[in-house]
Amino acid sequence: MQIWNIPIWLQCLAMALTVTSGMVSGQYFKPFNVTYDHRALIIDGHRRMLVSAGIHYPRATPEMWPDLIAKSKEGGADVIETYVFWSGHEPVKGQYSFEGRYDLVKFVKLVGSSGLYLHLRIGPYVCAEWNFGSQLSPILVNFSFLSICSQNILPFISVSKKHNCRVKIVYKCHNLIKIVSKLEILGFPVWLRDIPGIVFRTNNEPFKEEMQRFVTKIVDLMREESLLSWQGGPIIMMQIENEYGNIEDSYGQKGKDYMKWAANMALGLGAGVPWVMCRQTDAPENIIDACNGYYCDGYRPNSKKKPVIWTENWDGWYTSWGGRLPHRPVEDLAFAVARFYQRGGSFQNYYMFFGGTNFGRTSGGPNYVTSYDYDAPIDEYGLLRQPKWGHLKDLHAALKLCEPALVAADSAQYIKLGPTQEAHVYRGNNSTCSAFLANIDEHKESTVQFLGQTYTLPPWSVSILPDCRNTAFNTAKVGAQTSIKVVDSESTSSAKISAPEHLMIQKGLPLISESWMSYKEPIGVWGDDNFTAQGILEHLNVTKDQSDYLWYITRIYVSDEEIAFWKENATSPSLTIDSMRDLVHIFINGQLIGSAWGDWIKVVQQVQFKQGYNDVMLLSETVGLQNYGAFLEKDGAGFKGHITLTGFKNGNVNLTHLPWTYQVGLKGEFLKLYAVENDGSLDWTNLTQNEVPSTFSWYKTHFDSPGGKDPVVLDMSSMGKGQAWVNGHHIGRYWTLVAPKDGCQEPCDYRGSYGSEKCNTNCGKPTQIWYHVPRSWLQPSDNLLVLFEETGGNPFEISAKTVTVETVCAHISEDYNPPLEMWSHPNYVNGTLLVSEMKPVMQLQCEDGYTIASIEFASYGTPQGSCRTLSTGKCHAPNSASIISKACEGRNSCKIEVSNSVFGDPCPRTVKTLAVKATCKLSTSFYAGVSDI
To answer: Which interval of the chain is the signal sequence (predicted)?
Structure first.
């Protein structure tokens, strides 16, 4: 067992500070120590099985934090996990920011006041698809696919490199091979790359000095605010570095030395809680090495003295502009989680439980979208994603029922039940017993014998038996409701058009404004701070990431002879850029002639010149910073190689080494056209419909907020590409690139191992059209909206909409498990009620402030279809609708037992299903109680 030695004087001082702090703001916990052994974290002397919810504080507003934390807790989380974002906290070297969305102390205190623990992943390398990062392919093993090889997985490792950007490791077991990869990024401040002699993430003194300074700053801040567990705070664990094992070999011995240095540096800070390194198989003895991936049930740390910890369970995925939207079915996610605890895991964190929004220019790249929804259990706007949230809530409740046995047993008894079926049994003191039965077959259900009883296991599922006898939960049987969200100008409107099951949209009026003003962005040089240098300068070295935009301008002379040559041969010259990222707009003499985007791609653009002097103007643009894995500081953005004019009479003209004039950013950025205080400070002109679309234009208008309290989004589907601000708040980049028409799987079969290309949605549609505007950034009226539009769009068609849960529905069969709360029912505890006597229960619930206005469909029998296409089958209880209406209408939520005793038996000897679809409406006064039938 790992013991953390805290000096007595420091403990006494911490106690005194905690008591003093408690007098002011309330003490979160009685001070407690956190240690660990081979089985689990030990909190205040007790082993714990913990569920963690990933929430990144900068991806929401402080006003959203309490609700997000509360919904995580209600969903069964014990812990909140977050990275610490160095680039946000120290945007300028030595100048720290801990305010607004970066008020880390406030966030941690809110977690503590809610009664939850916190896992603080300092890094300071972080993933999270955050601005300025690397794109890499870390090792990922699908352990569930291989776990049928019992308790022993033998790795046969084959390493190959392709284009210096991808590493594959093959794990082979009984001829089963699975290869998976993940793209990750980090979040360093850009100024870090300008420190002389610096090399990131290796045994490099300049980098280590800066890293240690920042990590020390964070640990000291947490200690000063009494937020560590032994001070009565919520922090139970910290992380140093992040997935370094993926690139360690690139640095040779210096990489290994750096890893050991980072570990010792962290331990030397006296935080007094365990430290973690994820994906670090050579982590030192006193640092827990942890797993990240879609499946971590077969993971084992590098020491038998360490517990099995899963720091990132990827419950969704991110996307890029022009990409499809990933979706991970909750049945597979629940399967992965159950398998993890079944096979000895003790701490699992959902990455993400709430994804949120990449406000401003924080989205990484290249080309990651502004939304970071991540298909998480709580969506980008803070609404529950059902059935994912509800199904996981039930899973967590079932796991808690097993916790006494899980923490009491040092290991599980393994029982092979079939060729692809197995059981793990945990026995503790006082006859405590819990079991997990798994069917890893991807296609067929299986009937197995376990401890003298028969169990039917759906394919790719785990059944949880808290008492080793009765099934409390099966990962493939989803009893939670499905919520269909509406993005609409009027939440009461009934006119909708077809869209995916979980989301619908109404594209009607009203528009956000009929009155717009415009300001034309100058093309090329606009300020006194431009400068001229010989040759092509690297983009980030010039901009320091203070803007996405950088102008490159040079001038060439074209003779009459060249013009005649092109006319005679009916040809045109071309501009060739050897390599470019992320985007370039090409201008000749102030006229836009072409654009290109990509990740270090070659660009060839035909051009037209006039006789005499011609201005060649390139607007280079970053769309989120991204550098590959090792040696991040040596990569950059903009242009590489040569910039050449081809097709001239006497050969190519190399522009690379000519004098170039540089202008950082846009004039509108410099003037802060988006700031509320500058609203009337410039000569804007009234915009008319016949003036759009227009490129490189600023637009502004004023609008009223939609009524109510529902989340607000801007529908930007009429625009091209640019950035948007509301009341001075940068809501992010927008771009209406369309996803490919193929590659989606709707509906998607949850069975079998998940990867980021499985279960995609939104094919043939713009990747993102809705942009979140937090309610706290809005006022009832006269809100200022400012846009910078690059490629041409129509602001007159922008609308402000609200996101509401308008429809809820559910399918529950007779053979589903009873509700988890029945396991704590007094009659069950005292033995007078058998689980076999308990019946499944359907629960329907609208969002707070809404009531069930009407029952659109109800059938007890053999109903057909999904939520939007429900119909009665051959078997149907005619009283279904009246019973459900009586129980549910006018209430915020209702519960109905799924049994013949409620509905009668319309078809004996047939397993009946109850299917219900209900409409939720806003109510100024509603009965918040729950009706039970």
So the answer is: 1-22
